[in-house]
User: Which sequence fits this backbone?
């Protein structure tokens, strides 16, 4: 039995999808509730999304 | 037993589907609640969606 | 044991179904709540749906 | 052990069922809440459902 | 049977995605509700996210 590398890559994207989905979803809802806080919400969104994005790409490279 | 690469590609799309679904769904609801904030919501939606889209295509290429 | 490619294609459609379902469902609910925002909601819906649709077809071709 | 192609076809229909079910269900609820927005809701419903339907048939042909 | 390392890396990112998603999502909602507390919320968000990020990278390196 051989499990291709792409299955692992798929699990990485599932993890990033769960996380970025929750981060982005809450950001959208926050902007809709307080449009004047858009800048602050977007800054925080990009910080936390970059952490997860960096980890996902790191895992793609290091996990091979 | 051989698991085809396409199974891994499927997992990648499941991850992107979970994430883009949550991001897009919350964006729709936000626009419906505050139509005048459409521009701000759409900008944030595209930023976070691009991060996930880029990762998914990156995983498709790198994970092979 | 051999798993046919079509199983991977099925996982791709499950991912797209989860995502497009959430996007479309929220769009319907948004239009019902604010019918005058239909244009804005539909534009955002098509942007995010196109990202997921493009990825799903990309995965079908690249993942083989 | 061989997994027949039909299992993959089944997964495709599960994906389409999840998506079309959510899209159609929300459309019904939206029309029930705002009957005068029926036309707008139906247009959006057909756009997003066509995307998923097209992908499902594409996967059936390309995934073989 | 061989399970590639990348599958383990994928599980690491799923864990981090669940955690960072909840952290980031709640941070966005908090900033939207109290925009004047942005600094405090962001500091706490970065502390807790760094802990999870550090663990995930540690696992990637040490788990090999």
Assistant:
């Amino acid at each position: 039995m051989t499990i291709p590398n792409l299955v692992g890559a798929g699990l990485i994207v599932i993890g990033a999808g769960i996380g970025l989905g929750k981060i982005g979803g809450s950001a959208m809802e926050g902007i809709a509730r307080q449009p004047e806080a858009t800048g602050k919400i977007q800054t925080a969104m990009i910080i936390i999304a970059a952490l997860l994005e960096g980890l996902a790409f790191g895992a793609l490279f290091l996990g091979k």
Observations:
- The helical segments of chain C are 5-33, 38-62.
